[in-house]
Automatic annotation (TrEMBL):
This is Type 1 glutamine amidotransferase domain-containing protein. SUPFAM superfamilies: Class I glutamine amidotransferase-like. Residues 27-213 form the DJ-1/PfpI domain. It comes from Chitinophaga lutea. Transmembrane segments: none annotated. Keywords: Glutamine amidotransferase, Lyase, Stress response, Transferase. Belongs to the peptidase C56 family. HSP31-like subfamily. GO terms for cellular component: cytoplasm. One of its GO terms (biological process) is methylglyoxal catabolic process to D-lactate via S-lactoyl-glutathione. InterPro entries: Class_I_gatase-like (IPR029062), DJ-1/PfpI (IPR002818), Prot/Nucl_acid_deglycase (IPR050325). The keyword Transferase applies. The keyword Transferase applies.
C-alpha cells in the first residue's frame, strides 16, 4: 500500500497590493493532517518555492493546530518544505492543496505542481483541495488533454465568501467563476458552512470549516 500523501502549501505571503500578510491557513493543513496522520499516512509538504511556508490563521487555541505545530517532525517539514522538482509523483497516493489567500497568487500557474497532480490522478490517485486550495485545479490538464475539473462536481471558497471578506477586488480572479469556466459543476452551501464534494477521486471543500471533512473524505477514498 502506498502510504504517502503530498500536502501543498503556498509560498505567497501578501494579499495583492494591500500590504496585508497571508500564507497557508493553518487549520486547513492541520485538520486534514490529523485525520490522515492518525490513520498511518506519512505526509510530505511541498510549496512552489520550497523552504519556510508563510502561515495565516495562526491560532494555537485550536487544539489540532497546536498538536500539528508542536509535532517536531511536521514542524520541521512545514519550515523546510520541498520544492516541486524534489517530488516523484509515483511516491504518493494523494495530493492535497491547503488554502489560505496566498494560494490565489501562486497555485494556478505553477506548471510543475500541476504536472505532479495530473500524474498522481492519472495513476488512480486522489486530488484534493480546500477553500482557496482549488486555485491549483484551474489549469490542471490530464493525460487526455481535458481539464481535471471538467464535468466534475467541484467546490471551493465561493464568490459570496470572497465578497464577505472584502477581497473580491484584490484576488487575481474569482475562484468559483474560474472553476465554472473550466467546466466544473460548482456546488456550494451558505457562507462559512462546511461543504465537501467528492467526484471521481477529486475531493474539494468550501472553507476552513470544511478542512476536516476533506481529510475524512480523502481517507474514505484511500481505503477503497
Amino acid at each position: 500500500m502506498n502510504k504517502k500523501i503530498l500536502f501543498v502549501v503556498t509560498s505567497h505571503d501578501k494579499k495583492g497590493n494591500t500590504g496585508e500578510p497571508t500564507g497557508f491557513y493553518l487549520g486547513e493543513a492541520s485538520h486534514p493532517w490529523e485525520v490522515l496522520h492518525e490513520a498511518g499516512y506519512d505526509i510530505d509538504f511541498v510549496s512552489p518555492k520550497g523552504g519556510k511556508a508563510p502561515v495565516d490563521g495562526f491560532t494555537l487555541e485550536d487544539p489540532v493546530n497546536k498538536k500539528f505545530w508542536e509535532d517536531p517532525v511536521y514542524r520541521k517539514k512545514i519550515e523546510h518544505t520541498l520544492r516541486p522538482e524534489d517530488i516523484n509523483p509515483a511516491d504518493y497516493a494523494a495530493i492535497f492543496y491547503a488554502g489560505g489567500h496566498g494560494a490565489m497568487w501562486d497555485f494556478a500557474d505553477n506548471k510543475a505542481l500541476a504536472a505532479i497532480a495530473a500524474e498522481i490522478y492519472d495513476h488512480n490517485g486522489i486530488v484534493a483541495a480546500v477553500c482557496h486550495g482549488p486555485a491549483a485545479l484551474v489549469n490542471i490538464k490530464l493525460g487526455n488533454g481535458q481539464y481535471l475539473v471538467a464535468g466534475k462536481k467541484i467546490n471551493a471558497f465561493t464568490n459570496e465568501e470572497e465578497v464577505a471578506v472584502g477581497l473580491e477586488k484584490v484576488v487575481p480572479f474569482m475562484l468559483e467563476s474560474k472553476l465554472i469556466e473550466r467546466g466544473g459543476k460548482f456546488e456550494k452551501s451558505a457562507l462559512w458552512q462546511p461543504h465537501v464534494t467528492v467526484d471521481q477521486r477529486l475531493i474539494t471543500g468550501q472553507n476552513p470549516a470544511s478542512a476536516k471533512g476533506v481529510g475524512e473524505a480523502m481517507l474514505a477514498e484511500l481505503k477503497k
